[in-house]
Amino acid sequence: MAAMTSTRQKLIDSARHFIQTRGYNGFSYADVAEQVQVRKASIHHHFPAKSDLARAVVDESRGHIVAQTATLAGGAFDPDEQLRMYTAYWERCIADASAPFCVAGMLAAELTTLPDDLATDVRAHFRDLSHWLEIVLTKGAHMGRFAFEGSARQEAEAFMALVYGAMLAARAHGDPSVFAGIVNVGLRKLAPVAA
């Protein structure tokens, strides 16, 4: 028998959906209450402020990145496979509209209007993601799989910008395949040039 999803988790999942599709400023507790079929008071019980709910969404995403980083630190991994898994995840999510845009990406676009505690968490998400990418790219370079001119940190930031830019382009064109096309160009640029 499958475990029932807690009300708290349903609220987080609902907020994630609204942030991904509307942004932080585009939804209210009334929207979440309607989707989850609870009273607004129930949401306030779990998350006194809207920023608390959004922070729970960001923290959940950050938790996945931190866990993945710890896994990489613990042993051998294929850097090509790691990058392809990361980009393939977003390709699937954009194609089936299950997660048409990264939560942190949507929130970063609204950063100047966010409460300070939420903005701090969004910045931390990007630091964590950049750190993960830096580890993957560094190992790939050491193995001769990737070649780049700048530092691994700069390349991690550039690859992250490429992925988020590809998400924007896919959304702007209304065509999920645009994401894969852009990302594949970025992955090819990492490959060392044959002598």
TrEMBL record:
- Alphabetically ordered keywords of this record: DNA-binding, Transcription, Transcription regulation
Cite the InterPro entries for this sequence: Homeodomain-like_sf, HTH_TetR, Tet_transcr_reg_TetR-rel_C_sf, TetR_C
- Is Magnesium found in the keyword set? no
Superkingdom of source:
Bacteria
Species per Swiss-Prot/TrEMBL record? Luteibacter flocculans
Residues covered by the Tetracyclin repressor-like C-terminal domain: 81-180
Checking Gene3D superfamilies in the record gives: Tetracycline Repressor, domain 2
The keyword Cytoplasm appears for this protein: no
According to the entry, every stretch annotated as the HTH tetR-type domain falls at: 11-57
This one is known as TetR/AcrR family transcriptional regulator
